[in-house]
Amino acid sequence: MKDTSAENASTVLGGAKILLRQAVAAVLDAAHPDLTYPLTVVGIVGEVNDALASCDRSTMLALKNKLVIYNELGCPLNGDQGEGSSSSPPCPGCPGQDPL
């Protein structure tokens, strides 16, 4: 089977896949009752749908970049106030951590 991951990364379809990975994380964060996320689930879905409907890879990647920033704001569930601002470990359930 031919590996087309590098080939797909530079296409509109590849851009959509890259965006959707971050969008899933964003929806999960926004839906969590104990987290304050900059967007609502409805807002995320709307922005992602608009980016996908544009069929423009640059638009998709711009939204992906915005979601990456939001997704890396930190996890207040264990006292983490953002990337690099705390010595506390990642949230429980993160890779390398015990689940809740």
UniProtKB/TrEMBL annotation:
<protein>
    <submittedName>
        <fullName>Uncharacterized protein</fullName>
    </submittedName>
</protein>
<feature type="region of interest" description="Disordered">
    <location>
        <begin position="79"/>
        <end position="100"/>
    </location>
</feature>
